[in-house]
Request: fold
Amino acid sequence: MQFVIQYHEQYDNCAIWDRSMFSDKSSFRVGGSQVFAGRPPVQVELLNEIWCSSLVVAPHLSRRGPNGLWIISRGVNHPIEQAFRERTLYYLEMGKRPWIVQEIDGWRRIHSLELFRSGKHAEKVATKERSELKKVGQEEFEIDVAAATGSELLRLIAAVDVIEFASARLAISRDGMFFDDVTERASADTLLALIDGARGKSRR
Reply:
């Protein structure tokens, strides 16, 4: 776990650590990565899903070594990477980190992120949020607009349970699916159709 934590602190500004993720100590999800600890079978086919951006394999420590992590991610020619290569969406940042919101319903909790089709739309929402923070005397929290394209966008999407985009709400993780009481997670094709549909509306 030491290596897993160090890796995400250094390379992943979306990682959210939640005690509930450790119900299965050999396999859990953090920051869009599926982590496999010990000597588990590694499900490479998970990279065909939009909710998994990489596989982090953390073998048991041994005296012989080498001790560390194996990081497995999609290559540039993977169909999902190809499909999102030219897609750009915008989001809000707070303190140079994506503004990921925790939603709570009884004993259930998830993390969600709102995405925007244009920087102009995102800035409009950011201005409103800055005004709300000022009202409650919390203007020290800086809200900025950022953009993500291709692989970066995919990592951002995989890091949360639910995304909100173009008046739609899509379950990304299993927890997001149960929280919103829907029967399936969003697929890459579903999200691409939504992005392209929103793009067409904005042009008209």
In short: Residues 170 and 190 are 9 Å apart (CA to CA). DSSP finds six helices and eleven strands in the chain. Residues 2-75 form one domain. The chain has two domains: 2-75, 83-203.
